[in-house]
Each structure stands twice: as C-alpha cells, then as structure tokens.
Amino acid sequence: MEANPTNILPRVSVCTPTFNRRPFISHMIKCFDNQDYPKDKIEWIIVDDGTDKIGDLVKQHPNVKYFELDEKIPLGKKRNYMHTKTTGDIIVYMDDDDYYPPERISHAVKTLLDNPQALCAGNSEIYIYFKHLDKVFQFGPYGDTHATAGTFAFRKELLEDSEYDDDASLAEEKSFLKNYTVPFVQLDPVKSILVFSHEHNTFDKRKLLETPNPQFVKVSDKTVDTFIKEAEMKQFYMNDIEELLKDYEPGRPCMKPDVLENMIKIEEKRRKDAENMAKNMASQGSIMIQREGCPPTLLKGDEIVKLLRQQQDSISKLNHLIKIKDQEIILFGNEVLKLRTVMQKTDNDTIFESYVSQINQ
C-alpha cells in the first residue's frame, strides 16, 4: 500500500458472521491483529447468532462492533444484516474459521483501487488443507467472475443493487454476484486465504474429494508454509484446533439443522436435475451437468449411475444426521428436567436444614 498515503486510504469494514466457533476466536483475533492495513482505517463488524455467544472474547477489542442475535438465521440473511452495520468504503470478509494472511485486507483494497471498473474482488482459485491427508489441494480456478464468499472484498456501492438470498444457508455467492455477472477482479490466493478442513465445517469439505474433476481439483505443490509464516499460528490451525473441537459440542454441524435441511434440498435438486438430463439425453449415451460454481461437465453412462448413487447416499447421511440431532435434543431436554429436579430437591433440602437449625437453636 506504499503508493497510497495513509490519509487517503479508504475506510474498510471487515465483516465476520459467526455461530458457535469459540475455539477459533483467539486466532481469528490474531489474524485480524496481524493485518498490515492501518487499524485506524478499519472497523470490524461481528454478527453472532450462536447459542454460545463470544461477546466476552471480542467486545473489548478496539476495532470491534459486536451484534448479538437471539435466534439463528440463515447465513444469507445474516450477511445482509451485517452489511447494514457497515460504514466503510470497502467491505472485506474474514470468516471465523479460516486463516487470513497479514496482507489480506491491504491486497484486496489495492486490487480494487487498481481496477476501478471492478465492484467486487475474490478468489476463484482457492487452497484447502486436509489434515487426514496432510496435503494442500488446489480448487479452481473456475472462472474470472467466480469466487467463494470467504474471499470477497467489494465496494460499498455494490450493496445498492445487490444482496444475498435471505433463505440461503449454503452456496450463497451466486445470487449476490447476480449469477456471476457483477464486474469482478481476481485476487492472489496466497495473499487472501487458506482454508482448513475440520470436523466442525458446516459443509464437510472432504466431500469435495469424493468425485474430483481433475481439471479443477488437484494436489498442490504449495504447503501450509506457503501461506502461514508464524510457527504458533501454523501449530494452531494444523494441530491444536482438532483437539479443541473434539470437546466442543455447540459447534458440531448437527447444531445447524437449517443448514442440514438446506443441504438435503440442494442434493435432492441435483439428483432430480441429473435424472431429468439423463432422460433427455439418454439417446446420446451421455449427459452434461452443471455443478455450482463449475463449468459444465460431460458424464458417460457409468459416471451418471455413480453420481446418482453418491447423491442418494449423501441425502441418506444428511437425513441420518437430522435424526441424530432430534435424538440429541430429546436427550438434552431429559437432562434438563433431571437437573431441575435435582436443583429443586437441593433447594428443598437447604430450606429444611435451615428450618431444623433454627428449631435447634
């Protein structure tokens, strides 16, 4: 940012939606504090609709404007609400569970300033570290106007004519970017984000490796060291966080039934679309499918059958997760009733002991 004197740099609103991610918050704050963009030019908007609120961890931060919501709302609606709290010229997303390099904000701002025709910037090429494989995979690039929301940076004026689908819990980028027609510029992925696959991901990122298209998914020669220079940060994201998540029940995906239901709808729609295409193109012996954010892909007969089976299996697993969640809610309710009974008994015992003590005096 040397070419832009500090006094004329645009004001930035960093936006972070969060839901039950307490184990990540300490290092989410470190990612923010490590940013090389002038802190007096940044406000940090955090919107929390979790059941385990993080206000105690962030309210004292000098840049934070913290907003609590009493009920969980879809991510699309939460992002729209978040935007109403911003005052910056440029809005930059920093999600709560990803690693953002120190130049995340400055690189995004400079890229937008250098490309005045673009309303939005982001990454169509993204890197994800999978701990169970100890490898970084490259996903994309998918297209010049494509990007994942966690990498977005955009001018405030984009909000005059663009918003998220209020009901979207997943894949919310398409509607906000108006079917990827918004004037766009790509960011350098190494200066933007490193995603970590973990047990509490809203969407299990390991599914991305089940049927990879080699044109868009491949093992990268980049490593975690390419993105993270600080040893302590690397230790946290690669190792420590997994142990912390094991005992953190509020963050499990089953605590987000709205997301699970949304995933079922998406999988069901994809299955029906695939079936319809299969019927329409059966005579040709192949079909063309369009995955979210990906170019069309031609599938042959065996590949079609495999895809349908995988989608059906995914739907079954999601239905199973919802049943487990329902059972957990019932068990939790029973435990609450037991606890109330014990507390009532304890109160009664205390009153009785006090009464006896007074009599014996």
Automatic annotation (TrEMBL):
<dbReference type="InterPro" id="IPR001173">
    <property type="entry name" value="Glyco_trans_2-like"/>
</dbReference>
<dbReference type="GO" id="GO:0016758">
    <property type="term" value="F:hexosyltransferase activity"/>
</dbReference>
<protein>
    <recommendedName>
        <fullName>Glycosyltransferase 2-like domain-containing protein</fullName>
    </recommendedName>
</protein>
<dbReference type="InterPro" id="IPR029044">
    <property type="entry name" value="Nucleotide-diphossugar_trans"/>
</dbReference>
<feature type="domain" description="Glycosyltransferase 2-like">
    <location>
        <begin position="13"/>
        <end position="127"/>
    </location>
</feature>
<dbReference type="Pfam" id="PF00535">
    <property type="entry name" value="Glycos_transf_2"/>
</dbReference>
